[in-house]
Amino acid sequence: MQLLDQPEQLLGPIAEALKQCPPHNRLIVGVAGAPASGKSTLAAWLSEQINSAWSIDSQSVVVPMDGFHLDNVVLEAQQLLAVKGAPKTFDVQGFIALLQRLAAGTSTSPVFFPEFDRAADIARSASNVVEQHHRVVIVEGNYLLLQHPLWTEITSLLSLSIFLDVPMATLEKRLIQRWLEHGLDPKAARARALNNDIPNARLVAEESGDAHLVLKSM
User: Fold this and answer.
1) Residues of the domain holding 17
2) What's the rounded Cα separation, in Å, for the pair 19 and 17?
């Protein structure tokens, strides 16, 4: 495990890992961390850096785990809607199957994957694609390193793992602000963050395995 404090420091290890990656194989980089830790922002930035500086046959695409949210209809039927975002509210086996297809190499292209529409609060099937020239796949999600049954299968499918280490107090502020921006009043936003998101954040912090690289944030 290597501790880093600047996102730019991640690019060297990713480039080195790609050099060691056999031709026609994909480098699958996992970006894990608690809700509101900045996973999506970091994954998008890494992909932009790779696509602007690296060769056309070594391009990158971001694959978010959130596309595997169970639909609200399913969650209601299972009485899980109140804890949406917890590990049991994801199709982890479907997510693992996608990673296995990606890990099989570029000959499997194209590989379509779902993405989560936050505004509509729904996952949209096959809304993006991993093409043959996407040698670097950046997967981001809360539970990529979770040491729970089934979830542990993800670790072996990651070529390189990154964990965002963010203080709990910072996460709490970000999560409350997120729900305020979704239209909740201050009391409801705080309750939503503290009753569901923060327990998930603690789960990620306490029950995730070690990452290859840890990016610390204030």
Assistant:
1) 2-216
2) 5
- Residue 167 neighbours by CB under 8 Å, 6+ apart: 217, 218
DSSP state of 159: S
**pLDDT for 158-202, tens place per residue?**
999 999 999 999 999 999 998 898 888 999 889 888 988 999 999
Question: Domain total for the chain?
Answer: 1
Would you give the DSSP letter of residue 88?
G
Sign of CA dihedral 35, 37, 43, 44: positive
3-state secondary structure 19-70: HHCCCCCCEEEEEEECCCCCHHHHHHHHHHHHHHHCCHHHEEEEEEHHHHEC
* CA distances from residue 57 to 49, 109, 135, 182 in whole angstroms, order as listed: 15, 13, 7, 39
Residue found by looking up tokens 């020239």 in the block: 133
Task: Considering only CA atoms, give the Rg of the chain.
Answer: 17
Instruction: For the chain, list residues with pLDDT below 50.
Output: none
Here the CATH number for the domain that contains residue 136 is 3.40.50.300
